[in-house]
Write a structure and sequence with these properties.
binds zinc ion; 5-stranded mixed sheet; alpha/beta; binds 5'-O-[(R)-(carboxyoxy)(hydroxy)phosphoryl]adenosine; about 350 residues; about 45% helix; single chain; 10 strands
Length: about 350
């Protein structure tokens, strides 16, 4: 007997609903929020309001596309955190009422673990998945972590950022250059036309497996400010080279610690997760490094790099197998719990 799970994701600025049958996706609907574009970042109040507007149409559409009736669902999985509290409350409250009305269990899911478990979404049981234990570099707008995963329930953080996340470094660099939010994809695109050796920025020196990106943002800002004094057209003329240069420092920084973690643990199954894993430079570098060092590399399909409910549903599926259900008095958390 297969299990049908509805997944709901509302931690930041994407309202998403997915239906999975065991680990196979039947629908994965994502509604982005255009309202933040003019503000250079996500505005929490506007995000909650947009989730409130989107959630029912998105769930309706997911059920329709999956071609199932809500009464066929075995459970509803939702993102409990980390994320914006007001946004998380929309998904959590919806999951509670839905589970109560249908008389089915609800399952709380940690957003960051879900990003990692997205690697276990598969249509066919023969599709390759990481072998346990594996290391996952989770790089998103809010987090940068190297996580050791021993099974679908055991995660330990080996290193993480002490200030900005890698996605934030991309977004802030883009903002400094006057590019639209989110800046990561824009920098990625520009970088392909630029020369990464044009400008050098210092790599952060942090001991162990932790990261830091706030100094990089400051040196990028100062360099641009100085150049603008000499030539007001500097950004316009140099944006591709600037994008390529900042992107390459971010990638090198990410890779240095990832290689160290693989060496220290002796683990050779390496996965990427989170929004920044959509970056073409990072994907190419991890693949090339994997070839050189004998890693088995797992890079998520583009649709599962940024926030989506399919990853919430698959993470929910593993908890369903263990009957790890949530109760009606559950509340979201803004910060990571693991
Ligand atoms: O995982 P995600 O969708 O949301 C969070 O949980 O934060 O990640 C969003 C982050 C943003 O900072 C965005 O700029 C970055 O992922 N991002 C990228 C690319 N696509 C998205 N960064 C670099 N290159 C990309 N192609
Ligand atoms: Zn995310």
């Amino acid at each position: 007997m297969s299990t049908l799970i509805l997944g709901i994701e509302s931690s930041c600025d994407e309202t998403s609903a997915a239906v999975i049958e065991d680990t196979k996706i039947l629908a994965n609907i994502i509604a982005g929020q255009e309202v933040h574009r003019n503000y250079g970042g996500v505005v929490p109040e506007l995000a909650s309001r947009a989730h409130q507007q989107n959630i029912i149409p998105v769930i309706d559409q997911a059920l329709k596309q999956a071609n199932i009736n809500k009464n066929q669902l075995d459970a509803v999985a939702f993102t409990r955190g980390p994320g914006l509290l007001g946004s998380l409350l929309v998904g959590t409250s919806f999951a509670k009422s839905f589970a109560l009305a249908l008389g089915i269990p609800m399952i709380e899911v940690d957003h960051l673990k879900a990003h990692i478990l997205a690697h276990f979404i598969r249509d066919d049981q023969r599709d390759p998945v990481p072998k346990f234990p594996f290391l996952c570099l989770t790089v998103s707008g809010g987090h940068t972590q190297i996580v050791r995963v021993d099974d679908p329930y055991s995660f330990s953080i080996l290193g993480q950022t002490i200030d900005d996340a890698a996605g934030e470094a991309f977004d802030k660099a883009a903002k400094i250059m006057g590019l639209p939010y989110p800046g990561g994809p824009v920098i990625d695109k520009l970088a392909r036309e630029g020369n990464a050796g044009s400008y050098s920025f210092p790599k952060p020196r942090i001991p162990g497996l932790d990261y830091s990106f706030s100094g990089l943002k400051t040196s990028f800002l100062y360099r641009i400010r100085d150049e603008l004094k000499k030539d007001p057209e500097f950004i316009e003329k140099e944006k591709a080279n600037l994008a390529a240069s900042i992107q390459s420092v971010i990638i090198e920084t990410l890779m240095d610690k990832l290689m160290l973690a693989a060496k220290e643990t002796g683990i050779n199954d390496i996965a990427l997760a989170g929004g920044v894993s959509a970056n073409s430079g990072l994907r190419d570098t991890v693949t090339a490094t994997g070839k050189k060092l004998g890693w088995e590399v797992f890079i998520p399909d583009f649709e599962f790099t940024t926030d989506n409910a399919a990853m919430i549903a698959v993470a929910g599926y593993y908890k369903y197998l263990r009957k790890e259900f949530a109760s009606q008095d559950i509340t979201p958390y803004a910060r990571s719990s693991f």
